[in-house]
Design a protein that fits this description.
The structure is a homodimer.
Chain A (H helix, E strand, L loop, with lengths): L7 E7 L7 H14 L4 E7 L3 H5 L3 E3 L5 H6 L22 H13 L2 E8 L1 H16 L5 E6 L15 H22 L6 E6 L6 H5 L12 E4 L7 H15 L2 E6 L27 H13 L3 E5 L2 H5 L6 H19 L5 E9 L4 E8 H4 L20 H7 L38
Parallel strand pairs in A: 1-2, 1-4, 4-5, 6-8, 6-9, 7-8
Antiparallel strand pairs in A: 2-3, 10-11
Helix pairs in contact in A: 1-11, 4-5
Chain lengths: 425, 425
């Protein structure tokens, strides 16, 4: 395979579930690449993530104005499209990896920036290894992103802080609401949040209450087997003391036998399995046992898309990690991921570190046991100390005269194709 | 009955479902009363709304600092507690009205400020009429509040603009999210919003898209009988054009026979009626017919409590209406409600007017037919012109160093009781 010479282009793609700040990382990558034009050519983005690379469906980001790229910093979602597509192992589908390298070579790509979670770190690593073997080396840098906060080594993942802020603020607001209504009406408010395996997001609900704002919050973590009796007793105690109670339930909350609460055997008129989530199950359980009137909400995409209440820490880190990815590439690094290194919590100080992809790929960071209170329904001071800096600061998007946030929709101009079709299997 | 002499105290209470800005009206009432100390004594608030007046459970707001009262302007929910308690007709329960007047007389109350919707306007009117007859006249002023935006005469109701902004912004954000995921994963996002009878809140979802931000939004209004075939065809068309579709469904969306979509016959394992809302029903209906992967959210209390994304128009008007209520009282008015009068939409100009309670009580303002597009799934330019000014401007609450909004919890010191017990029937 002939090596291309001179300045190489960069490839950037977004992977998996998007977040309020993944575009801030894209902004960091593209702006930093543009600032180093003497070393890096164009940044070509994959349309709909890695699918875009496989099908040679590339976007020429050089067609976007500096202003449009800057606006990515305050625009939620994945501006180039993301995908849920995990490359198989090298053994199972070497064809796909070879195709990636073929596309990279055709477009003179020397830098591979992949913005995602654990799976994409693994892809990133494999691409780098295979490219080396095939004699077309690529510097593969992974940019961390996941609302689930489950990547190892990095202190936290961009995307999580903003979800955490949304959940903490919303739980506080809804708790104030139900407190007002409790005397004659609603006494229970249940909010369902994301996090099927790890309770990081549910834990953020605990930030709604603090020493200056005494609110009764009960959290149902996926890490804790659901104990109905203890739960109902806790809720009853809170209602007796405060007049009401808010419950934050993770979608991953499950019974001792592993069955999700959301799978409570609910059937629709056609006999289809349950439609609802964990929140209505929990709310009805309380109503049946204790008779309290309830309201429930399911935040779903609203929580991870809520750029309007993003955490400044989160936005800053997402941008800086994108920037650091390019700097790592320029300094000759390969198969690494820039990380957030916490220097201190009070005051919050952090810096950028790096981790080898071999240590990141396919490792899931769970919430430490000592972050959950002994009764299983709350967060410990240690957890609060960890979480608080991550929701610190507000970073509002600009708004138009019409009262709406100005989020950018890019032109996403296609790059002319050079190769034949490729069928995704 | 002996008339009290000299300076009279004021009574203030919050009624029905609370909002992000009802406390801004409380702030307007209390600050304006404090600024007129030579004419108005203390402002005594009803703990948990009118229940507090009936049971002589009053709060002495003079014990709160100026700073705490000022903080009400940016605190969601009802700071003194609200209630869902509708006084019966004078004929059916004259005893309650007489008790109110007895309590007002015992605490030298000459002003009755009642902050609520249509029912409380009616209560306000009756209290004023009966007090007159009983020889203890009260100046009864109603302060409008309702997220449902269904009070007559006033151009809009405080509380609605902020819900509308939350729904418009959230729908835009979630649409950006689903657009990113649509290629390989979620193609449908369904958001369920409040509004059992009127589609004002659902209509706000239509603001998510505009000429600068082309998003496929389908709205299901309570005013339009649900037409499954037309709905599915519309969704399919949008997905074919855009790759995805967002649906905003009112909780009041119903079939031609009047049955709510949310009552789709869902049963849990114990045979209890449905747990879920309209959103999962709509989402599953699309999945069954068209096969698209979906996500759904139910905003519930989050939408009306979301002070963090309140509309500045809304906060300003809530405050000014509270202030105007006191000014109306000071100018000798009785049985009236201050209103918002729209002078122009572009630019948005409004002023405060007034309406006699006899014309407000028990009248529900529905959404005009020409606000809904002919196909029944969108909003017209007329509707957009009406709604846009109401979500105009941002009015962020202050945040602490911990990244959380600083909402105030008042001391709510009780007023010493002077009367015997009263049993609510």
């Amino acid at each position: 395979m002939a090596k291309s010479t001179g300045k190489k282009n960069a490839f950037y793609a977004q992977s998996g579930g998007v977040t309020a700040v993944i575009n801030a990382s894209a902004c960091g990558v593209i702006e930093t690449a543009r600032a180093n034009k003497h070393k890096i050519g164009k940044v070509l983005a994959g349309r709909n993530g890695i699918i875009g690379a496989l099908t040679e469906d590339l976007i020429d980001t050089s067609k976007e104005s500096a202003r449009a790229i800057a606006a990515l910093r305050h625009t939620p979602s994945g501006a180039f499209g993301s995908c849920r597509y995990k490359l198989k192992s090298l053994e199972a589908n070497r064809r796909e990896y070879e195709r990636l390298i073929e596309v990279f070579e055709a477009h003179n790509i020397g830098y591979f920036f992949y913005n995602g979670g654990g799976d994409s770190a693994d892809t990133c690593l494999k691409v780098s290894e295979l490219a080396e073997k095939m004699g077309y080396p690529i510097q593969a840098i992974h940019v961390p992103k996941t609302v689930d906060n489950d990547l190892p080594i990095t202190d936290n993942c961009p995307g999580f802080g903003s979800v955490a802020k949304y959940i903490a603020v919303s739980t506080r607001e809804a708790s104030f609401d139900v407190a007002s209504m409790a005397k004659t009406s609603t006494k229970i408010f249940v909010l369902e949040v994301m996090g099927r395996h790890a309770g990081w997001i549910a834990a953020a609900g605990g930030l709604a209450a603090d020493e200056d704002c005494d609110l009764p919050i009960v959290i149902l973590f996926p890490e804790v087997e659901f104990d109905q009796k203890a739960f109902l007793a806790t809720v009853e105690k809170k209602v007796k003391k405060y007049g009401y109670c808010s419950i934050v339930v993770s979608e991953g909350c499950h019974w001792p036998d592993g069955k999700f609460l959301a799978e409570q055997g609910t059937r629709d008129a056609f006999g289809h399995a349950q439609l609802g989530g964990a929140a209505p199950v929990v709310a009805n359980m309380i109503k049946d046992a204790l008779g309290y009137k309830f309201h429930w909400a399911v935040a779903d995409y609203l929580q991870r898309a809520a750029r309007h209440i993003a955490s400044k820490s989160d936005v800053d880190q997402a941008y800086e990690l994108g920037k650091a990815a390019v700097k790592l590439a320029l300094s000759g690094k390969n198969s690494v991921m820039p990380t957030v290194v916490r220097k201190s919590s009070k005051p919050y100080k952090w810096t950028i570190g790096e981790a080898p992809l071999a240590k990141v790929a396919n490792v899931e960071k769970m919430m430490p046991k000592n972050f959950i209170t002994k009764d299983g329904f709350g967060i410990t001071p240690k957890c609060r100390e960890y979480l608080t800096p991550l929701i610190k600061g507000e970073d509002y998007p600009p708004y138009g005269k019409d009262g709406m946030p100005k989020y950018v929709i890019l032109k996403n101009a296609p790059v002319k194709r050079k190769l034949g079709d490729f069928e995704i299997q």
